[in-house]
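Final report, closing paragraph on structural work. Over the funding period we assembled a curated collection of sequence-structure pairs, and we close with a single example.
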Amino acid sequence: VERQLELDAHALAWHPKARGRAYEAAGDGSAWSFDGGDTWWATDEGRDRHYVWALAVDQLDPDTWFVSAAPGAYHAHTDRPAEAHVYRWHGRGPWEPLTGASDVMPYALAVGNGDLFAGYRDGRIDVSSDGELVARLCARMGLEVVRGSSSRGGASALRALTRSLADCLRNERQHARRWRTNTRPKLSTGS
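Its predicted structure, as stored:
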């Protein structure tokens, strides 16, 4: 849904590599632009908290970004429980909560080296690895990635990891056999 840039913008960011890509966190939600800010598109699907404060952009993928959000300004900026979440948007969305409800509002977000950093109103800083960022970096290095967690896809990831390890061991054994065959000293039978 196209919308006007919110006058209560809390954070704005531009993607360092995707020309014209801009992002907004505001008092009534979030939006992004594909034309340098001339038009804005609401991105509120999947997020039940609409007071959006901080944002961070994945520098490797312009379609992945993060926001912190609370039910309202009173929750975010007072001593009452913030009931805030950190969310991730990937591709066409929707927002996915990355954290459970926090009693303290995340005031700052940053992405670096595959980690998501959150700075909270009380001065705490949390670092959490976002599997998507780490997986993408590993794939770029040619490493096989098997993903899963205790809450999503853990059993199938464990089976895939087991198969991958078995294949690796089988390949190592074959390589060792070939090496031993090719490097054995030739025995001479004296004449």
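The two ends are 90 Å apart (CA to CA). Residues 8 and 171 are 59 Å apart (CA to CA). We thank the funder for supporting this effort.
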